[in-house]
Amino acid sequence: MTKKVVILGSTGSxxxxxxxxxxxxxxxxxxGLTANSRIDLLEEQIKQFRPKIVCVMxxxxxxxxxxxxxxxxxxxxxxxxxxxxxxxxxxxxxxxxVTAVVGMIGLIPTIxxxxxxxxxxxxxxxxxxxxxxxxxHLAKEKNVSIxxxxxxxxxxxQCLQGNTHQSIDKLILTASGGPFRTFSKDELKKVTVEQAxxxxxxxxxxxxxxxxxxxxxxxxxxxxxxxLFDVDPSQIDVVVHKESIIHSMVAxxxxxxxxxxxxxxxxxxxxxxxxxxxxxxxxxIKKLDLVAIGSLSFExxxxxxxxxxxxxxxxxxxxxxxxxxLNAANEEVVASFLNKQISFMQIPEIIHTVMDKHICINRPSxxxxxxxxxxxxxxxxxxxxxxY
Length: 388
Hints:
alpha/beta, 11 strands, seven-stranded parallel β-sheet
C-alpha cells in the first residue's frame, strides 16, 4: 500500500535527503511540501513530486511561487506562514509527517499533526527540547507513533527493538566531537565562522553545524532522548566517537551493550522511519566495511571546554520551561555568531546568562512555553548587543 507523506522543511538538508529516499523507492506519495524561503528549489521539487499543497513561510515569496506555478499551469495550492505549516501537517489523507524544519517553528505544526493522529517522523529537535513532556503526553493520548530521524535517536530506537524498557541501564549517545575536538581553550577563542561550518563527517545546515561544533547539538539530543525513551537524565551518557560509525548504543543491565553501526548517511535513519518496521534494501547507501575503516576510537567529552553540553544537562535537570529557554537562547546566539556579532566562546556564556536570569515554570502550558521562548530570545538579543 502506498504511504502518503508531507515533509515540513523539504528544501533543507533532511528534507532533500528524504525526497532522495522517496525517489529511490517510488512507493510513497508526496502530498505536501514546505519551505522557508528557497522557492527555486521548492519549485523543482514540485515539478518532480507533484504535491497537492505547499507552504512558504514568507508571504511575498509564496506569491512569487504561486505566480510561477500558474504561468506553467501547475495546479498546486500555495499557503504561507505558521498557519500554512499546520494546514500542510494536518491533511486528512496523509499517513506520515516528516518534521524537518529547523527551530522552534516546528513545534506548533507537529502538535497539530499529533492531534489529528498522524505518525511523526521527527527530525526537528526543538519539538521535544522545548515541550517534550507536553508533546509525548499528547502522543500517548492520541496513540501516535513518534519515530526518530536523528541518527543517534534512530540508533537507540533500533537497539531497543525486542528488549524491555526495564532492562535498560544506559543510553549512550555518540558525538563526532565536531571540527574542534582537539582544539585547546586558547585556540577555541580564535575560532572563525568559516572554521565552525566545516564539519568533519556530516553535511548539514549551518545552525546544526554550529551546534555540533559547540556540542550543544549533543546536549539537545540528551534532552530529546529523555523524552523519547522515558529514562532518567542520569541514564544518558555521551561519548566522543570521531569516526561517526557507531551512531549510538544501549547498555543493558545484564552487562550487554548493543550498538547500531553504519556509514554517516542520514538517508539510513530517514528510510528506517519512513518504512518502519520494514528494513528496505538501500543500494544507494554505501555499505559499512569495517576492515577498510580499521579502528574506532572513543573519548570523554570535554565539558569544561565545550560547556554547552553541561548547560543542556543542567536545563534538563531543572526541567519546566528551562529547556525552552536554553533552546531559544541558543538559536539567537548561534544566529549572532553566524552574523559575526559574537565570538565562538561567547555562545555558551550568553546562554548561561539567560538561563541564570530565567524564573522557571514547572509543568508549563503551551502558551507559557511560547512566552518563555519569546522572553529568552529578547533577553539573548540584549546580551548580544552588549558585546558590540
